[in-house]
Amino acid sequence: DAKTTQPPSMDCAEGRAANLPCNHSTISGNEYVYWYRQIHSQGPQYIIHGLKNNETNEMASLIITEDRKSSTLILPHATLRDTAVYYCIVRVALNSGGSNYKLTFGKGTLLTVNP
Amino acid sequence: GAGVSQSPSNKVTEKGKDVELRCDPISGHTALYWYRQSLGQGLEFLIYFQGNSAPDKSGLPSDRFSAERTGGSVSTLTIQRTQQEDSAVYLCASSNRVDFAQYFGPGTRLTVL
C-alpha cells in the first residue's frame, strides 16, 4: 500500500489560507490521492481527489507535484468551521482489475483555525 | 438526495450480548464499506461490498464480526458476544463507480459495558 505522511497538527489564522502537506513517495502511477476531513464527532467528509493535475472545487484546491510524491491541500480562506482532522489517502485497488478500491485512513493532520 | 444513514446513532450493550448495526447507503451507490474508529484513533477498515461480488472481509478483527448486504442496498454489521474492546464508532460509507469517493454516514457509537 502507498503510505502517506502528514504532520500531526497545524494552526491557521481565520481568513488566511491553510496549506496542508502530504507525502506519498511510494505512490504508483495509477493511484489517486484523496483528501477527507473529519470534524469532531462527525463522519469523514470527502473534499477532493486527483491523479496528476491540480484540482479545484468549491471546498478546496489540490496541488500535486510533478513527480506525484507529495501534494498540498489548500483551503483558500479558512474559517473556524474548518477546524478538523484532515486525511490524505492514496486509493488502493482491492482487485487485480483495479475496479474495486478501499481507502486506508491514517492519523491525519489536526488543523486548528484560530480567531 | 439523501445521504448515508445509520441506525441506531447510539447503542449501549452489556458484554457478551450480540448487536446489529444498520446502514442505508446512498441510492444507486454500488459499493458499501464499514469502518470503525476507536476513541482518538484513525479509521480502521472492516469490510467492503461491491455489487454482487464476494465481500472483502480482510479487515474484520475476529469471527465475532460479520456483515450482510441484502438486495445490493441495506447492510447490517453484526457483532456477536460483544467485548469491551469493541466499543467504538462504527461508520458506514458508500461510493459509486464514477469517482469512487466514499460518502460517510454519521456513525453508530457502540458502548460495551
How would you describe this protein?
The complex is a heterodimer of chains A (115) and B (113). Chain A is an all-beta fold and 115 residues long. Chain A contains no helices and ten strands. In chain A, a hairpin with a 6-residue loop joins β3 (33-38) and β4. The termini of chain A are far apart. The mean pLDDT of chain A is 89. Chain B has 113 residues and is an all-beta fold. In chain B, 0% of the residues lie in helices and 47% in strands. Chain B has strands at 5-7, 10-13, 19-24, 31-37, 43-50, 65-69, 75-79, 88-95, 103-104, 108-112. In chain B, the strands form two sheets. In chain B, strands 2, 4, 5, 8, 9 and 10 form a six-stranded mixed beta sheet that branches. A four-stranded antiparallel beta sheet of chain B has the order 1-3-7-6, with no helix packed on it. The radius of gyration of chain B is 13 Å and the shape is globular.
